[in-house]
Structure formats: structure tokens, C-alpha cells
Amino acid sequence: MKIIHCADLHIDVKEMKGLSAEKRKIKRNRLLQNFIDLANFAENNEVQAILLCGDIFDVAVPTKNSLSIFKKVILNHPKIKFFYINGNHDERLIPFSLEEKPANFIHFQESFKRINLNENISVGGASISRYFDESFYSTISFERDKFNILMLHGPVNTSDQYFNGIYTDNLAGKNIDYLALGHIHNGGSGKIDERGIWQYSGCLEGRNFNDVSKIGEKKGFYLLDIENGKLNLSFIPFSRYDFRVIELNVTQNVDYFQIVNKLKEIFALLNKDDIVKVVFKGRRKEEEPLQIDMLKSEFENKFLYFDIVNETKVDFDLDKYAKETFSLKGEFIKNVFADSSLSNDEKEKIATIGIEALKGEDLSL
Questions:
Q1: Between the CA of residue 28 and those of 20, 46, 119, 159, what are the distances in Å?
Q2: Mean pLDDT across the chain, nearest whole number?
Q3: What is the pLDDT of residue 336?
Q4: What is the pTM of this model?
Q5: 337: enclosing H helix or E strand
Q6: Is 340 exposed, middle or buried (0-12, 13-18, 19+ CB in 10 A)?
């Protein structure tokens, strides 16, 4: 039996800093299209169940259009069972009313519930809240002779601002073979006990620069292929608009053309639909500006979104400033270096910060 494990689609996401209104619309539409494409992938690959492990929507009250499409996708794929739990973003959402809920949609709400997919495989889950009681663990019950999947949304073996945490010590010995998790967008896995493992699917597609994909990697979901009680687990890349952060160390000897050539080399590995931020780091001479505006013009039309963040520090010629007459910078440097209570290192640091402040640079604090 084939089962998809995914989470954190964040349909109707609100936060998309930097993108124009037109491009925000493209990205939001894509997050909704992801769910349509996921169901089509499942049908085309004989997948019998999809585990939607929380934060499928970014809000508890999605737009009418998004909720309508979500429901129609489920109704249009009656042979696939959709298992749904709420996350911290869509925590109060009930997608279907009792009267309209189709047989292939199973919503695990606050209390643990278990469903047999067939005589050999069962799926259980619950939509836990931030302050769920530890007595919840005692309600989890699986049969020893089945392959058992548990769906939860939250951080494993730690707490955060949204949840007290899911602790595997409390799950050990409960006949869990696969703990399907949502909440952490960059994936992760580990063991529950000698029998079972836990796995984050990661998000299906990033929603901001906290969800960066490394070069050569994409976001996606996990495909479980269970046969005779044995699990074959594979990751399926699925994202189209990936967030990429490129850090480039700009030394004193790198000029504009060298930077352009280096970025072209890196960008050849990216997709035109990527959302790209380049971060310049390192130190450079004051007389060697980075030509940020020219670089932005060179590359801004190559991707869905492109930006440059300058985090370099400038090596100022402090002796040059100290020799200036009738200059605020010169008088400042002279006073700093005349202070006998400071070490040479302290004088250089204070002088550099002062020049940065006077010239409007980011401070080296």
C-alpha cells in the first residue's frame, strides 16, 4: 500500500515580505495548486491515502475560494483517503461540516482516534493543542500485529512558542511504526524505540526565507510503500518556487565583474521560478563599492524575486582620516587615539565604529 505523508502547505499564507502584489498572488496560487497536484500525483501513482499533518492552511478561516477548491479535490478523488489533523495555524478549522463530510475524509480532532486502512495497516492521530495534557499519551492504542501510523503536529523532544512538545519517551512501546509529523518545515527524523521511527515531511513548498532550500534540493513529501509489514520510505521533490539564500564572501580583491561572473556560475544551478536573496559577507576597502544597484539590475529579472543584502564590513584608512583638517571625522579619530586609557585594539574598534556611524554604514557592534 502506498501512502503520502505531507504537511505545512500553508494555503492562504499572509506573510510574503518583498514580493510585489502580482508575485504574491502567483505564490499564493501555487500553494493552493500544490494540493491539486498532490492529489493528482496520488491518483496517477496508485496512492491509497494522504496524511495531511497540520497547517494545511495558514489561517483558521481560509478564503472561500481556497476552502472550496480543497473540498472539491477531496470529493474528486473518492478512491483516496485523506487523513487530516490541525496544526497551530489552522487549529480551529473544520473543513467539512458533519452533513457534507465525504467518506474518504477522516478528520482526527482533539482526542486520539484510530482507523484501519486494511487488515494490516492502521492510521491514528489527534489535533493536539499547545497545552495538551500528558494523559493524552495513555489514550494512544495500536494493535501489535499491524503496521501502525500515528499523525501529530508539533516539535519532537522539545518545546517552542506553539507547543509544549511531543516526547518520544511517552510513545515508546505503543506499537507505533511510523510517526508522521508536521510543524518543522525543514524535515528531520529519528527513532521512537526499537520498533518505530518519527519523520517530519517538511513543507511542501517554502512560504518565506525561513524555509530555504539548499542548491540542488527541493521541498516535497514522503512516500510510504508498505508491503508485508515492511516500510520503503522515499522523499519526493515537489516544490516549484524555492527560496534560496546565497552567501558570498566578498574579499578586498573582488571587483564588480568578478562578482557578476561568480553569481552567474551559482545561478546556473537555480530555477527561474526561485525566490533568491544574495547576502554579501566579508571585508572590503572603502574605495571599492559593491555596486549593489547595478548588480540588482543585472539579475532582478532572472527569478520570481531577487534581492541583495549587504553585510560586509568596510576597512577604513584611519590614518588618512586622522590627517584631515577641519574635519569632524579627523577630530574624532585624533581624540580617540589620544586617549591613553584605551588599548590600541580598543582605539581601532572605537574609531572604526565612529567612522561607520558618520558615514551611515552598519555598525560593527
A1: 12, 28, 40, 29
A2: 91
A3: 80
A4: 0.86
A5: helix 328-338
A6: exposed
